[in-house]
């Protein structure tokens, strides 16, 4: 019978869709990716135990006190085994997929229940969706949507939809026909019959379908870890590919806890949302005995209030604790670089080596472990920037031939490798591949292989076995590199025969006494070089990184020692192994990735992490980011926290904030100093003298003093535009300035500094009168022609200095930094130009503005932070 090329047809269909529906896939990727990112942001923002509390309250509302306690303990355990973020990623994927699935499946099920033709058409499609192996859905997912969360979401939607459609249809059909007829007899509209009769009675069955959707979605999300889906799927995949029992146990336990929680909550939800369920719940509670309190469930209103309160606390803590920080280097300015690797030792080691190098140079690298096929496919699509471990021209020849037009060869960094079959050296009579023939019984008729997508496996099956006549005698066992090494270790321990696929260089040859079987026919090829491959356009987008990688080279001793350190560090701690290795090779980072920035001497306290707080005022932002940049050049790792004035002074007093550079004393922030001065230290003034004032545009004639402002109240609409309500200037305006000049009738708006400046710009562009709360120094006086209203009564008080204030322990914890701050001064021109450069760089690019200012002030780093 002739072969029907269904696979070729499917391949052609996929290619056609990729060529003609790219716009659709891009739209879906954008929508689903944004939906996922939004939910993940919400779930990742709060402290884990607060979110755990919210989950526990929901469990209490649905199932009672024991379920709430177990929920809290379960999610607390996930946090304690450091799988919290991965769990939230998986939960986000499940929520996105289930929301979309239910939104589509339930209406489709209702339609199928009310229309036989639709039911007949939908049934075979659902059969196909439900019986197709789950992993098959990942193939078109990668091709259409690339790597990451989106292909996992799409695959999950397709895989989990059938139960919801079937159960919805079944539930609607099971509603007693006489009830429907009675509703029709009373003249009920079909829509009302559906929503008031059929859906309420079918709800238990529909909820059972939704429960199955969630369970199938979670299982598919775990499988999606193979294509970079992140979350617990990535943890499970990584543990499987590295045979890491510890990581596998922790990831698997987190999956179980999440699955049980979702299953129990959704199965109990029916009792809360359906009338039948609520009646059954009431009867069950009435029949309880002495332990009735354990099964008591709070009212919906009570549970809602508890969840809202916890959510508000969590959101407030997340906002208050939000911090800004930067990488130690400055070359990358925080730009992302994605690195992909197959979980082979040299690939993993070099990938994490480059992750560490790029982080030191100011980039934000992201690493993903993938099989060879998804890795090359994802890189060709542009989802992965670089892979460090392409074996060319032989092992990965198939992938290179397919995707070379979409990739860049950044060069070979190791030469030459070899592919081989190896056996333990105690197998004395096996020296070549010819010697394997006739000894299939000795080796159990198998050769232990690695990942099925590896080029070496394809060469072994397609060429080597045929050339040496081993095809009928041996079966190649497809597993993973780690599984192969585990089997090798077990066999050597027991002195059993084993033949494995290996390659050189590999640390296994140092650990075990192995024999590389000679290949007299050259079936494995002449040997590969290890290449760095970039996506097309990478050299243009990141010329500096590409330049570093093109010159990258490691010898065998360096590579094997790096592999050893990474392996000893263990899964999940690869970068710690890299750092240990770099300590043994001082200066190597500068050799491999010479910085385009000037080399700065490290400070005595390099490596320390001072926390700097700052308000959203221009001089505070400017000077804090300036010191952040300087400290990074001196080897520190500063952390920044943007806070309102009150919380910042409180944080300084408790030690949560080490230092801040924008304290206006002795007047503007006197109340904070008086309250907290016993817990603080005055490091010194760096600017002298400031002033507080109300300012108006100079085109507003006849308003020169605060007395004039009172007389022209109607001109300004009886309004003064203020700043943050907690500032000393605002408090002094209300308590002292306004009573002295009769300004109490003015409405003082309490917004933020940014809002005040926006309003000033708007009014100035339209030449409208406006009075704003300002201070000197401020860049607004350079940008706009403004009049500072005179204060003949001196109600604003004496001029302030801008001081640096630290926690009482700051000088002892950071003596070098404290010394720099004591001697630091800035004049009006320096501060004004710094603020101007940061304003020009834009929000989120403060570091770029600071870099520009430093470049324009040569020697400023050594002046502000001298190192002997």
UniProtKB/TrEMBL annotation:
| Transmembrane segments annotated in the record for this chain | 23-43, 49-78, 90-114, 134-159, 201-225, 245-262, 302-321
UniProt keyword terms in alphabetical order: Cell membrane, Membrane, Transmembrane, Transmembrane helix, Transport
Mind telling me which CDD domains this protein's record contains? PBP2_OpuAC_like, TM_PBP2
Q: How does it sit in the membrane?
A: Multi-pass membrane protein
Subcellular localization, as worded in the UniProt entry = Cell membrane; Membrane
Predominant place of localization: membrane
One matching Pfam family, short form? BPD_transp_1
PROSITE patterns registered for this protein in UniProt: ABC_TM1
| Alphabetized InterPro entries for the sequence | ABC_Gly_betaine_transp_sub-bd (IPR007210), MetI-like (IPR000515), MetI-like_sf (IPR035906)
Residues covered by the ABC transmembrane type-1 domain: 87-266
Question: What family is this?
Answer: Belongs to the binding-protein-dependent transport system permease family.
Q: What is this protein called?
A: ABC transporter permease/substrate binding protein
Which organism is the protein's source?
Streptomyces decoyicus
């Amino acid at each position: 019978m002739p072969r029907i090329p269904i696979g070729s047809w499917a391949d052609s269909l996929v290619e056609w869709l990729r060529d003609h529906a790219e716009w659709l896939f891009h739209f879906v990727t954008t929508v689903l990716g944004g939906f996922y990112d939004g939910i993940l942001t919400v779930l990742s923002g709060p402290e884990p135990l607060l979110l755990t509390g919210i989950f526990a309250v929901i469990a209490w509302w649905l199932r009672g006190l024991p379920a709430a306690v177990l929920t809290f303990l379960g999610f607390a355990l996930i946090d304690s085994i450091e799988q919290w973020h991965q769990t939230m990623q998986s939960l986000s994927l499940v929520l996105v997929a289930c929301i979309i699935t239910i939104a589509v499946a339930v209406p489709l099920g209702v339609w199928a229940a009310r229309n036989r033709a639709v039911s007949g058409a939908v049934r075979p499609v659902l059969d196909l969706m439900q019986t197709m192996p789950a992993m098959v859905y990942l193939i078109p997912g990668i091709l259409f949507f690339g790597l990451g969360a989106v292909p996992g979401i799409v695959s999950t939607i397709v895989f989990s939809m059938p139960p919801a459609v079937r159960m919805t249809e079944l539930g609607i059909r099971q509603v007693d026909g006489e009830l429907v007829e009675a509703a029709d007899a009373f003249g009920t509209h079909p829509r009302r019959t559906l929503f008031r009769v059929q859906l309420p009675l079918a709800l238990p069955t529909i909820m059972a379908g939704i429960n199955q959707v969630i369970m199938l979605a979670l299982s598919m999300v775990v499988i999606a870890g193979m294509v970079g889906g992140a979350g617990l799927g990535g943890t499970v995949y990584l543990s499987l590919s590295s045979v890491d029992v510890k990581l596998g146990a922790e990831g698997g336990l987190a999956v179980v806890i999440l699955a049980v929680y979702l299953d129990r909550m959704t199965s109990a939800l029916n009792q809360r949302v359906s009338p039948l369920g609520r009646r059954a719940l009431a009867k069950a509670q009435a029949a309880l005995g002495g332990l009735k309190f354990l099964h008591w469930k709070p009212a919906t209103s009570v549970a809602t209030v508890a969840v809202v309160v916890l959510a508000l606390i969590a959101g407030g803590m997340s906002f208050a604790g939000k911090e800004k920080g930067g990488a130690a280097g400055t070359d990358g300015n925080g730009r992302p670089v994605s690195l992909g690797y197959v979980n082979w030792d040299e690939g993993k080691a070099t990938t994490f080596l480059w992750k560490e190098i790029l982080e030191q140079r100011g980039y934000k690298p992201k690493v993903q472990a993938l099989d060879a096929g998804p890795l090359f496919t994802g890189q060709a699509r542009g989802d992965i920037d670089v892979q460090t471990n392409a074996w060319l021209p032989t092992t990965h020849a198939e992938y290179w031939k397919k995707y070379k037009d979409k990739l860049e060869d950044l060069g070979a960094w190791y030469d030459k490798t070899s592919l081989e079959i190896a056996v333990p050296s105690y197998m004395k009579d096996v020296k070549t591949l010819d010697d394997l023939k006739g000894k299939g019984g000795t080796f159990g008729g198998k050769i232990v292989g690695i990942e099925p997508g590896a080029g070496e496996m394809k060469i072994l099956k397609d060429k080597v076995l045929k050339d040496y006549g081993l095809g009928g005698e041996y079966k190649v066992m497809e597993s993973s590199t780690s599984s192969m090494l585990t089997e090798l270790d077990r066999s050597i321990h027991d002195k059993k025969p084993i033949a494995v696929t290996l390659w050189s260089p590999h640390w296994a040859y140092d650990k075990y006494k192995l024999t590389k079987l000679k290949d007299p026919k050259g079936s494995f090829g002449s040997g590969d070089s290890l290449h760095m491959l970039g996506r097309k356009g990478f050299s243009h987008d990141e010329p500096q990184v590409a330049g570093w990688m093109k010159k990258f080279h490691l010898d065998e001793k360096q590579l094997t020692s790096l592999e050893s350190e990474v392996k000893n560090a263990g899964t999940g701690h690869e970068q710690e192994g890299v750092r240990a290795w770099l300590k043994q090779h001082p200066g190597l980072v500068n050799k491999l990735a010479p910085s385009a920035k000037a080399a700065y001497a490290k400070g005595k306290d390099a490596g320390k992490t001072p926390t700097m707080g700052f308000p959203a005022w221009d001089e505070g932002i400017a000077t804090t980011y300036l010191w952040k940049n300087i400290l990074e050049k001196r080897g520190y790792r500063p952390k920044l926290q943007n806070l309102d004035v009150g919380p910042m002074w409180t944080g300084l007093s408790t030690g949560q904030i080490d230092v801040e550079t924008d304290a206006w004393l002795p007047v503007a922030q006197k109340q904070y100093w008086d309250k907290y001065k016993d817990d603080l230290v005055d490091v010194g003034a760096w600017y002298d003298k400031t002033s507080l004032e109300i300012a108006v545009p100079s085109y507003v004639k006849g308003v020169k003093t605060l007395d004039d402002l009172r007389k022209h109240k109607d001109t300004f609409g009886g309004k003064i535009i203020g700043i943050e309500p907690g500032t000393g200037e605002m408090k002094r305006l209300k308590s002292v300035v306004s009573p002295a000049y009769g300004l109490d009738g003015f409405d003082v708006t309490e917004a933020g500094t940014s809002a005040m400046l926006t309003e000033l710009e708007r009014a100035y562009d339209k030449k409208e009168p406006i009075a704003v709360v300002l201070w000197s120094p401020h860049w607004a006086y350079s940008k706009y022609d403004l009049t500072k209203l005179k204060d003949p009564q001196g109600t604003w008080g004496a001029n302030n200095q801008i001081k640096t204030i630290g926690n009482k322990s700051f000088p002892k914890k950071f003596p070098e930094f404290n010394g720099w701050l004591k001697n630091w001064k800035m004049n009006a021109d320096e501060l004004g130009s710094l603020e101007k450069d940061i304003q020009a760089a834009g929000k989120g690019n403060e570091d770029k503005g600071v870099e520009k200012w430093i470049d324009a002030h040569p020697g400023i780093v050594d002046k502000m932070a001298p190192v002997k």
